Amino acid sequence: MQALKFEKTGSLDNLALVNLDKPSLRPGHALVRVRAAGINGSDAAAVLGMLPFVTTPRILGRDFSGEVVEALDESGASSQEWIGADVWGTGSERGFTSDGTFSQYVSVPIAALSRKPATLDHFKAGSMTLPWLCAWITVDTLANVKEGDNVIIIGARGGIGSAAAQLCKERGARIFGTYTSLAKVTPPSYITPIELSSKTAIREAIAKAGLQNKIDVLLDCAGYDQPFNDAVFTMTPKGTGRVVIMAVHAKDGMFPIHLRTFYTKALTLKGMLSSILGPLEVKKVLDDLARKIDSGLLEGPKEVKEVDMKDMDAVKGALQEILTRASHVRSVIVP
Fold it and tell me: Has this prediction a pTM greater than 0.85?
């Protein structure tokens, strides 16, 4: 089989198209023919050496959508239950400390298999699993967004931010979302948009809405200190404010926080790590998402960009693009 593998970190040029044997199946595992694998910022960061926990050599990639072509039950006998099923997956340590999904085949525990939404093709399904898993962890596990909460999402147009907005809407929260520019953007009706046209754009918009000191939840999906600190200024001082951060844009990882504002509002800060959920927990999330997408409660992506795995220039260009957030259309590797 063919796969995208790197032997060492430090440069996107270290990523190479290689020929390998298909994964050897262990009892209780299924072999999935990958049809699409979403490209995420963590993929580029892994190759560049920005994530110290990544081990090498390593096949890149965390997301996938594809078909089950082989499966063994716990006794090691062939299992027919999942053969031919369209499945999707993401998360855990795949692509970090175990081989990832930028490959023609990937081995997955049968207990962790999740059927992809029937209403999405492999390309759209494969593009969204990690952003939606991150959004789920952020909204459900970390921020515990509830009906009636006032929520600010910094970076509401991105993959995680837009997914988090849908999940907050489903829970009955009021959502304010930031956008670098609204010139060519039509935000969804359930988001009150805030254009970052000044250093105090967020506090001004929240004050205009009559909600100064009444924001319950801040979800920072972008990682820039200026809008983060502007948003912190608007939060409730009652000791119930929840802040979740999942990105730092600066290369050195430094992020100045206005601590006096933070502690005088008695806020709680949590960091989102997508690999905190194990395979069975990820399956539970994806099964629920698939059901809600197929029922129309949640909406998948409208478009994706397909990148041929054999075109290394296109692959590296897509990795660079997501690292610099140069496009709002997600890309998928097509093995």
Answer: yes
